[in-house]
Amino acid sequence: MKKFLSLIIILSLMIVSYAKPKNVIVIMGDGMGYNHVLLSELLCQANNLEIATKNFQVASLVRNDTLDNVVTDSGAAATAFFCGEKTKLQYVGMDKEQKSLDSLGRILKREGYKVGLITNTRYYDATPAGIYAHAHRRDTEKITKDLVSSNFMDFFVAGGFEKLGVNPFTMKPKKDSELKKINENGYKVYGNNYELLFDSNQERFMAFVAPGDKNFENELITGELPFIDVVEKTVEKIKDDQPLFMFVEAGRIDDASHINNTEAVKSELLMFQKIVNYLTKEFNPEETLFIIFADHETGGLSIFSSTVDGSDITIKWNHTDHTGTYVPFLTYGNSKDIFPKQMHLENVKDVLLKTLEVE
Ligand SMILES: [Zn+2]
């Protein structure tokens, strides 16, 4: 009987360990409120594209307030998500006393995950900085230093090429450029549009695929890769059997919303759907937890009227800044039900680590 019981215990432990996700893929829409998500779905309908978010469920009603304001910014929200702690506006990867916090990325790297981030904004923007930096969000110098010395990510793809020691006229790296230092830390380094700048015998890489932010998808310049191509090129390079923690930011939804640029926000939201569609097909949902979330809403966007097929949509803007709303938090795939029905962004990290059985 004792033997039988221990067999049952061993078997159930095996089931539990099999049940946890091998990969965690987070797709974040900066500034993407629930109305933005609805708009992205209507745009799919109008363009005969699959609505990728239809596979997702609303996992939790999520708040994002900071220690000093109900309306957050990308820095404090990224800190809550990556570091599991509410902080003050403008702080990235630091608590209210400016003490450095450990990020999900660093923790999961120590646990043997392949860890990386892809964004269409600058590397020193507050959201991508949340995974590696400890700084005020406007302190580009410190954020850059933290990136160069971070040394834990397996891949990192962003814009902001021009801040890493390139000659502003030729756009080629200077002798003592930060790009070279990153290479000396053991990374392949790619530049504009994924052009190889510095090779390495290591697999890991950083790519700075645009000067500044990538352009809005409806305003790409000749030869500029659409964001989906950047994501696909990255996934082709990183896909193997190692467990994966990947954070993909559709970061320009926020910028388009700040300036109430309706056409740009539509093109960015359609791109967001294409990326979700691609990733949910590329990675097996039985072994992957997919999370879609937003750090905050921007613009007070509302759908004023629309035909049911999304072919004639009128939207209204109410604001040019972030607003205080509950933010989307959607899940799909393995372990999609792990989150409490109501939470704050700062709770995500602990729930995830518990599910992944990380102390
Ligand atoms: Zn913003």
From TrEMBL:
Key words, A-Z? Hydrolase, Magnesium, Metal-binding, Phosphoprotein, Zinc
Which co-factors does it depend on? Mg(2+); Zn(2+)
Under which name does UniProt file this protein?
Alkaline phosphatase
Family of this protein: Belongs to the alkaline phosphatase family.
Organism, scientific name: Oceanotoga teriensis
Lineage summary: Bacteria, Thermotogati, Thermotogota, Thermotogae, Petrotogales
* GO terms, molecular function: alkaline phosphatase activity; metal ion binding
Amino-acid positions noted as binding Zn(2+) in the UniProt annotation, renumbered to this chain: 30, 254, 258, 295-296
Name the residues that bind Mg(2+).
Answer: 30, 125, 127, 249
Which Pfam families does the annotation name?
A: Alk_phosphatase
PANTHER family attached here? Answer: ALKALINE PHOSPHATASE (PTHR11596:SF5)
Catalytic residues in the record: 74 (phosphoserine intermediate)
Instruction: Relay the cofactor remark from the entry.
Output: Binds 1 Mg(2+) ion.
Q: InterPro entries annotated for this entry?
A: Alkaline_phosphatase, Alkaline_phosphatase_AS, Alkaline_phosphatase_core_sf
